[in-house]
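[recover] target loaded
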């Protein structure tokens, strides 16, 4: 392995450049990101390279001999144990953990915690709302199935009263070590013991309720408060309502994704509502007071004389509430003026008279074939 190549830096790179290069690679391939085996290997390689180049003495040694002392002793890849990143702090002894912590905000430690407490998973559900429910808010009861802390063993996995004994599989070390001989030397890999999850100890008797799994699957009814004005596709996060953690780890969260059925009467855009309303030609000409249906009930709207078709009236504050506020959007009503299509004999006479009065020399036509 050429650590310069691994980090993508040249031989003259400063300590700072090396640190930066490593940081970039480590962030990209960090196992916490859930990458594949190849990412894991890249992470190992970068970490190994940084272990050499990040240390003045080791770097000098590498530059001079093309290897470091440790590599000569341990054979293989420096005798480091890179498998199971939970061990990374331990393997690099002392100082390295600090670098990890500064890089990942405690990520180094977190990566180690496979054997310690684990946070429970998040649960995602979809909550369907009617249009009215989304506008005025409601409380929804949903049934979910989630892992909850086993009450019988208090989440510890052992039958209460049974003592902890050394794990036979790993002889209490929490690790399973494999030694592989390769042309490059001996490679030692250690993986977390899957029997004790790396704890090294297992209960003599597993909890009879959860079978040592710390948690039990339960159906639970949960009430979700839906605030007035919530939007379609919004999500509500209920902290700590997800799945129970393991070995004392925190509980995950519940995410309720909102799906709103649209209304047949009202069009919602943001917090505004829009509708359209037809009025008679005479109402438009002479003005009138009409009834408009809003989400907050019927209200009276004054149509001034001479209102043109497609005019939009704003009903301030008759829209949808803003979530968590007393404010509301507006209701916009578009007026459509209907032209009378069928006239009685009397109406016809009156229109003709009106035309005369308006000094319009019109030539009335029969209804069009398209009309
Ligand atoms: Zn239990
Ligand atoms: Zn074990």
């Amino acid at each position: 392995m050429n650590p310069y190549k691994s980090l993508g830096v040249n031989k003259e790179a400063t300590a700072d450049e090396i640190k930066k290069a490593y940081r970039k690679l480590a962030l990209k391939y960090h196992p916490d990101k859930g990458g594949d085996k190849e990412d894991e290997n890249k992470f190992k390689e970068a970490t190994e390279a940084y272990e050499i180049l990040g240390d003045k003495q080791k770097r000098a040694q590498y530059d001079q001999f093309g290897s470091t002392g440790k590599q000569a002793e341990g054979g293989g890849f420096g005798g480091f144990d890179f498998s199971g990143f939970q061990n990374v702090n331990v393997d690099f002894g002392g100082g390295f953990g600090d670098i990890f912590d500064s890089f990942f905000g405690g990520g180094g430690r977190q990566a180690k915690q496979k054997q310690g407490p684990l946070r429970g998973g998040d649960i995602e559900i979809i909550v369907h709302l009617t249009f009215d429910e989304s506008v005025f808010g409601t409380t929804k009861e949903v049934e979910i199935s989630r892992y909850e802390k086993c009450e019988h063993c208090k989440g510890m996995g052992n039958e209460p009263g049974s003592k902890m004994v050394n794990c036979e599989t790993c002889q209490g070390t929490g690790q399973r070590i494999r030694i592989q001989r390769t042309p490059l030397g001996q490679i030692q890999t250690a993986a977390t013991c899957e029997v004790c999850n790396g704890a090294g100890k297992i209960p003599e008797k597993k909890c009879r309720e959860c079978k040592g799994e710390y948690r039990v699957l339960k159906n639970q009814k949960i009430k979700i408060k839906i605030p007035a004005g919530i939007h379609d596709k919004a999500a509500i996060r209920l902290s700590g309502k997800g799945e129970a953690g393991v070995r004392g780890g925190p509980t995950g969260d519940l995410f309720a994704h909102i799906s709103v059925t649209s209304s047949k009467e009202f069009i919602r855009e943001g917090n505004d509502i829009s509708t359209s309303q037809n009025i008679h030609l005479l109402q438009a000409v002479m003005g009138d007071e009409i009834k408009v249906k809003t989400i907050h009930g019927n209200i009276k709207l004054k149509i001034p004389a001479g209102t043109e078709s497609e005019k939009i009236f704003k009903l301030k504050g008759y829209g949808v509430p803003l979530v968590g506020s007393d404010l509301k959007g507006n209701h916009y009503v578009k007026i459509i003026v209907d032209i009378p299509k069928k006239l009685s004999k009397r109406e016809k006479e009156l229109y003709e008279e009106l035309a005369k009065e308006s000094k319009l020399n019109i030539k009335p036509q029969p209804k069009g074939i398209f009309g």
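[recover] notes: The radius of gyration is 37 Å.
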